[in-house]
Protein: DUF6883 domain-containing protein
Organism: bioreactor metagenome
Amino acid sequence: MAKAPAKELINLLTNKWSGNFKANASIVVQRVIELVEQGSTAQAAVNQAFIESEFAAKNKAALDSTLFEAAAYGYGIMPNLVIGKKAIIEKLTSLPWAPDNMPLSTRLHGLNNVMKATIGDVIKANMTEGTNAVKLARELYDGYNSSKVLNTAELPSYLQQLDKYAKKAISEGVSPDIDTVRDYRQTLKRATRLVDGMSEGTNKPLKAAYKQLLDATQGFSSESLKKAVYVAAQERSRYFAERIARTEIARAWGDGFLAETIEDQDVVAYKWRLSSSHPAFDICNFHANADLYGLGPGIYPKDRLPSYPAHPHCRCLLEEVFKGEIDLNKGKDNNVEKLGRRYLEALDESQQTDLLGQKGAQDFNKGEDWQQHLKNWQGHSNPVTRLVQSDFSLDYSKAFTAENLIIPKDKLVKYALNKEHKLGSPKAVAFEKALGYTKDNYKDLSDKVKNSISDFDIVNKGATKHGVKFEVLMTLTGPNCKSANVITGWIIKNNEQQPRMTTIYVTGKEVGKK
């Protein structure tokens, strides 16, 4: 697979994982709300919801699969062809790569704790803020907008009890006890049910008054809580989650990319490609635009590459630079400090500050080494990848599916079924005689091959400079209702994943089904 769509693939994978995260988080949120409304404390509700929903396990499984796909795409192959998925996931999740030496499993554990704490804190804060709604309810109980329609003494017992807990919540100040809030919620729920059950005919104004009283406290018990918890899980927590996921997905893609290219003798350097959606002027701009080795802006010898990704949320990509595209001799004599200074001196004051910080920019302009001040600078080194080529053993047979095969029309119409073709004529005669296929019904032959391919053995005939060749012997039944054995030849070209037909003809060879 060519690397051109790498940016789109990484974005697609990130968005796919984000969708899974939101779906799993929504289940947690809904359960937390239910438990709190039933009287659970905030932290108890969060812990129970996490356990019941299996959030941590589901989130990890989704990210594991996404990282595997990213690595496969970075390597340049379709994920479904890779045999060792489990081993690749194990490496990507257990082997650290960042300077803090922290494996992904530890990061995810931290993420789960952050999410739990965030939701719990928001619930508690929301309950505190809810005392404003309680105060409003008290005003209604004491006079009902000065019209004196209702008075506390005239309220039924369930509303008097609600009044009691409202007073208690107010007396406890801006941070009412969690038990008080729980009692208030339970009483409010019961009162709402009883008011809703009142007959309109008994006293319509009275029911309306009760309803208005209860409506004034609804924000305290339900909607504001739901909104706050939803924001906590879906926005605040998702930011931390996506920060980890996008960074790890980019690194997994990089591991696959380096595994494929690091030993390739035709690849002599790498180019740092800045994302078109890069949000800020930072070290990625430096990596992409500084010419530190005399090879061109953003080009680095294979053994002197910046750490990738450069920072959390990094969306940049690496590209191969092939032999003949640059003069490597220019990169032998280099002075990174001198050439980096040349780039930085050409920037305006604002850009220098973005890269070096205010004090760092001042010190740089006084002659200090920029490497002491450049944010996220980790130097250059021979890249180390967690994956190697042997991790990507392939099962090419998985590529031979009806929807994945390429059978060029001209291969059939102008060659294999063309009696006028100098070389194809004997094949065309054999097809018509044995199976009844001609140029007029070539589509039927094409469909028959595609729909039958999975029933027969895929024989690997070896690699060539153009790709890997395969042969499939199959038995077909033609429109004349006769059956014959047919040889089909295929190639999966380098940087492609679809088998392309190279030849097809009737044969006397015996065919063995799977």
Remarks:
- Residues 42 and 120 are 5 Å apart (CA to CA).
- Residues 127-224 form one domain.
